[in-house]
Amino acid sequence: MRRKALEIKKKIIEILKKHGEMSLRDLETKANTNNKTIKTQIEELEWFGKVIVLKHNKNEKNGRPYTSIKISSK
Known about the structure:
Elements: H1 5-19, E1 22-23, H2 24-31, H3 35-47, E2 51-56, E3 66-71
Antiparallel strand pairs: 1-3, 2-3
Helix pairs in contact: 1-3
């Protein structure tokens, strides 16, 4: 059964409150959804000021750039 966008956004906020800052990949796994859906929902949450998107130049594990998300402190 397909989930509504609001349900996914609530799940994202819930996960971030529980776990703190997370990579997009980890958030995708925890929310049980695909990459495109996560990115779309994060863009909307960022626009409303609910989350902050952080772009990192280098992952300590593999040296590749990555993006992480955290709850906005507003």
